[in-house]
Specification:
single chain, alpha/beta, Rossmann fold, eight-stranded mixed β-sheet, two-stranded antiparallel ribbon, 12 strands, 17% strand
Length: 381
């Protein structure tokens, strides 16, 4: 019992010491201006945060110390940005890039580096991102985390800032895409690789398409990736039905231009399944490759990676189900989104877009298929 009381008293003394130190850290951060002062304040904040964790201080105290540490990192960002603007700190931060001397005036000036200052490049970069928040904003975020019973950290705070910045950027890119695609709408006869310039750069939210499945069609995927990389807005997606024998080449060629995201499965429904005699396989599903430009724009909308459609071959021998097209178009585009299909076939993608109120454009190289798709689309319009 005596040992427990002594340990309790020792912890109380330590916690009180941490609270006093944290107050001193806050003052040091507020007053720091010169590089030595900023670095000293950062080191004090890092030590205080570590001590609070080691003595298992309360969540509130640990989060307060983490907030002080975050503000100290912000101060480092403030310092590095100021020194860059003044031309004192090297732009790349990591190595000396210029040394100039004026022999007449006997003065020497040079750009210092982050290494000269003893500042980590990662800390400097995080600090610059944190300039988007005020010190009061950081305190508020720490208090919110404490109220939720959650941990607060500089790393999470930087991630939130980055995510908010990315979200704002994506919103602006969407608005720009809307402006430049106003006059694009319709079904075009021809090879998308030759007449794809009809689609403006960075204007498309989703490419949903069903290329041919034979071996000769493998040569199309490099062109498809190049086209998608140009017309998709950042955050946009390409989803393409793929034959199993095409998978290795399709992934390799598309990966030259876009970022692989996922492989979905289209489950074949119906009384009969395709027998692949050459491989000894009864084929019950089809891959759907999902690639994105940079990253997926909306990760909060969950997509089922197994799609089940109905058998529809009324307008094209390889026609895919409208149910599948509607599912992905609905989830991966906004109500005013723009969808493109470089391999229109029987017109399933445009029909799904019309049903969902999406703007669309499509290409079909075969005149007969183009005529059938055109007639089908006109029936729906």
């Amino acid at each position: 019992m005596t040992n427990l009381i002594q340990q309790s008293k020792a912890k109380a003394i330590t916690v009180a010491s941490i609270e006093r130190t944290q107050a001193q850290v806050e003052r040091a951060i507020a007053l720091a201006f010169e590089p030595e002062e900023v670095i000293n304040a950062y080191e004090m904040a890092a030590a205080c945060k570590l001590l609070a964790k080691q003595v298992d201080a309360s969540k509130a105290i640990q989060n307060k110390c983490a907030a002080s540490h975050t503000k100290a990192v912000r101060k480092v960002g403030e310092l590095t940005q100021r020194m860059r603007e003044e031309g004192v700190l090297a732009r790349n931060g990591g190595r000396r890039v210029s040394v100039t001397a004026d022999d007449t005036e006997k003065s020497v000036s040079h750009e210092v580096t982050l290494d000269d200052l003893g500042i980590s490049r990662n800390i400097a970069a995080a600090g610059v991102k944190l300039l988007a928040l005020s010190p009061e904003d950081i305190d508020a975020k720490a208090d919110e985390a404490t109220a939720r019973g959650a941990d607060f950290s500089c790393k999470r705070c930087v991630k939130e800032v980055r995510d908010e910045s990315d979200a704002a950027k994506r919103t602006c890119q969407k608005e720009e895409a809307k402006k430049i695609r106003q006059k694009v709408d319709g079904l075009y006869l021809g090879d998308f690789r030759q007449i794809g310039s009809k689609i403006p750069d960075a204007s498309v939210d989703l490419i949903f398409t069903d290329p041919p499945y034979d071996r000769k069609a493998i040569e199309l995927f490099d062109g498809l990736g190049e086209f998608a990389s140009r017309v998709l807005r950042p955050g946009g997606s390409l989803i393409a039905y793929i034959g199993q024998i095409q998978l290795p080449d399709a992934v390799a060629d598309l990966s030259k231009h876009l970022r692989y995201w996922w492989t979905c499965s289209c489950y074949h429904s119906g009384p009969t399944l395709l027998r692949m005699n050459e491989y000894g396989i009864v084929n019950g599903w089809k891959p759907m490759l999902w690639f994105v430009k940079e990253t997926r724009g909306d990760k909060t909308t969950f997509v089922n990676d197994v799609a089940t459609g109905t058998r529809e071959k009324s307008h094209h021998e390889w026609q895919q189900s409208e149910v599948e097209a509607r599912y992905f178009i609905d989830l991966l585009t906004d109500p005013d989104g723009f969808v493109v299909d470089p391999f229109c076939g029987g017109g399933t993608t445009p029909i799904a877009c019309i049903a969902l109120g999406r703007k669309w454009a499509a290409f079909e190289i075969n005149e007969t298929h183009h005529a059938r798709a055109s007639a089908r689309i006109k029936e729906k319009c």
